[in-house]
Amino acid sequence: MSRWSRVLFLALILTQAGHSIEEYSTRLYDVLAPARLVSSLFSDDRSIGFAIFNASLVAFGLWCFFGPVLHGTRWALKLAWFWVVLEVLNGCAHIAWAASAGAYRPGLATAPILLAIALVLGWQLQHHSSTTDAAA
Question: For residue 103, how many other CB atoms are within 10 A of its CB?
């Protein structure tokens, strides 16, 4: 992975942290059934379960960055693509949910940022992969 891809990856994880904070502060776990379900898997108190899940997600992202991505292990590219797909789906889902409601929904403020960074990172990964394949 290129240096720029690593920077974008870290930006994506930090943006996810901000996105999680937005979702928590706007109580996504009370208004969206999948968030209620996931939260209840971690605690009887949905707010605590949601915090545990999101803290774990961000911690996993930071582990991916400071481990495989930063050190360029063979898993780095696969993990980066996992995060690209996850955040593109996450961003699109929040935007579509708010658009269908015609109003703000929890997570909407940061969703476009997640989507943009994920798309640029995906483009960068694809571009880097194409130039690496051409050079081989």
Answer: 9
